[in-house]
Amino acid sequence: MTSFALPLIILSAILHASWNLIAKRTSTTGVALVFLFSVTEVIVFFSVVAMAIYSLWMGTLSWGAIGFILGSGALHTIYFWLLSTGYKVGDLSIVYPIARSTGPLLATIGAILLFSENPTLIVIGGTLVICFGVLILTGNPRDLRQSKALPAVTYGLLTGVMVACYTLWDAYAMNQASIPPLVFQGGLSLTRMMVLFPFAIRQHETIQHAWATERWKIGSIAIMSSISYLIILFVLAFSPVSYVAPMRTLSILIGVILGTNLLKEEQKWRRIIGASIVVIGVIMLNIG
């Protein structure tokens, strides 16, 4: 991990945790929320989307590159839907840490198997430390089966699987297909909007009400989420997945602190201790 990449990932983590806090506080969820902030991204970052469309029109992108953009858009759409639904049924300080730790763990394993990356022993140890921190965050598995936390854990795990899928997919696109990050991000926004459009039509009344009452929250989510991921796409272009993916878990500590303090979620200190252990694992990754 280069010294140049670390501050970029920290900035991305702050933006990521912040937009997740806003998403937790919105009453709009699921298709309506994801569609609205996707449309907002397309509007706000019109030049980026226009660049993606222009590249398609002029044939500067190969069909393989177009396939990567469309595939990533579909994966991100499922990810956002799962995450939004998870926030509807569970605490931010449960769903967010599980999703943000499970994803990098699986992505690291996938990078070793698929991309033949060779992380050091310190990196592998850091990954295991992150897993231990997550266990503390989620609590006793036996208790979770009997509690209201189980749906939150389930959606957190499913979201983490999608994080791993799009991380590996996008890393390959950045390194092998050589797609410019700006073009890729613009294509993601446009694809996500188009995928959800048929479903959004059926919920037009819900969408109209959500935009009328929560447009500022939706706009904030759109701007922060897109900038946060654009930074990661840039870093993935010159850094191994097995280092970048676990480093993104820095946002876990921020998310837990926001959830337990601003949202007054329960078991504050256990969750903060668990998140701190995750950060120690991240530091090991950076040293490694």
* Category from helices, strands and their pairing: mainly alpha
Count of DSSP-assigned helices = 13
Q: Give the radius of gyration.
A: 18 Å
Unreliable spans are: none
Number of strands: 0
The major beta sheet can be summarized as: none
Overall mean pLDDT score? 81
Q: Roughly what percent helix?
A: over 70%
Note the gap between the termini.
8 Å
Shape: globular
Short description:
By secondary structure, this protein is mainly α. Helices cover 84% and strands 0% of the residues.
Describe the overall structure.
The protein has 13 helices and no strands. The protein is mainly α and 288 residues long. Helix 6 runs antiparallel to helix 13. The longest helix is centred in the last third of the chain and has 33 residues. The relative contact order is 0.23.
Record the SSE blueprint.
Elements (H helix, E strand, L loop, with lengths): L4 H21 L4 H15 L1 H13 L4 H27 L2 H23 L6 H18 L2 H5 L3 H27 L5 H22 L1 H33 L4 H7 L2 H12 L6 H20 L1
Helix pairs in contact: 1-10, 1-12, 2-3, 2-4, 2-9, 2-10, 3-9, 4-8, 4-9, 5-6, 5-8, 5-11, 5-12, 6-13, 9-10, 12-13
Key phrases:
288 residues; mainly alpha; 13 helices; globular
